[in-house]
Amino acid sequence: MGLLEGKKGLIFGVANNKSIAWGIAEAARKEGAELAFTYLNEALERRVRPIAESLNSELVYKCDVQSDSDIQEVADAVKRDWGSLDFIVHSVAYASSDDLRVPFHQTSREGFKLAMDVSAYSLVAITQKFEPLFTNGGSILTLSYYGAEKVVPHYRVMGVAKAALEASVKELAVDLGPKGIRVNCISAGPIKTLAATGIADFRGLLNHFEARSPMRKLITIEDVGLSSLYFLSELSRGVTGEISYVDGGFNVTAA
Ligand code: NAD
Known about the structure:
43% of the residues lie in helices and 15% in strands. By secondary structure, it is α/β, with parallel strands linked by helices. Helix 1 (20-30) packs across helix 8 (221-232) and helix 5 (109-130) packs parallel to helix 6 (156-176). The model has no long low-confidence stretch (mean pLDDT 95).
């Protein structure tokens, strides 16, 4: 019997088959989860629908996480289609390339708000609207990066948004703990995805990581997928508010 047999999970953040959310969805499906997906816009729907179908899922909903009404509509649709929910994967982030290109102190007000809204507040909004669907406890998992903690070159406003996201994970964990809803975060090492193309000199980041991380190799979306099984399943039933590294990151300093 799979670790997620009988569990229903909603995945936010698949853009294509390189997305971290896709690595998580594949791993969850292999362990028996039933899955539903969201997509940002019509252009992405064309990519997400076949990906969802390849994992035997026909439940694909439009959701721009900047829109409360979109999030509510998805919550209503999931209630109609499934009745309840066991887990959510929040694998969503965005900052405008204009703000990622300038030094942090030149971040625009609008750019700051946008990065915070999509990359951090969306976890709060999603938790708020979906809480009633977790009738038997549940697990919410989000994705962060080491730039939340230390200044990583070129990560800029996104580092600040990730710091807010990680603090939100802890706040939400405390609020929802009494209902048996756990909220955790995987801080993944750098992976070449669509979102990563917005970060300048991402190749340099990958090289640095490969040279300095404890295992001296890049991690993959499959690695993140395997780790997510711990958080999405009963294996972590006593764990909440955790920021867990799938990398070991920048722990090894240069000789
Ligand atoms: P990705 O581009 O495949 O996924 C990002 C997703 O965010 C996309 O599906 C995109 O459609 C979605 N998105 C953006 N704005 C949205 C909005 N307004 N509404 C709804 N969805 C929106 O890239 P990824 O690397 O798989 O990113 C997934 C998560 O992992 C992000 O939170 C990212 O910061 C995090 N992360 C990535 C890395 C990396 O190196 N790639 C490392 C650590 C953490």
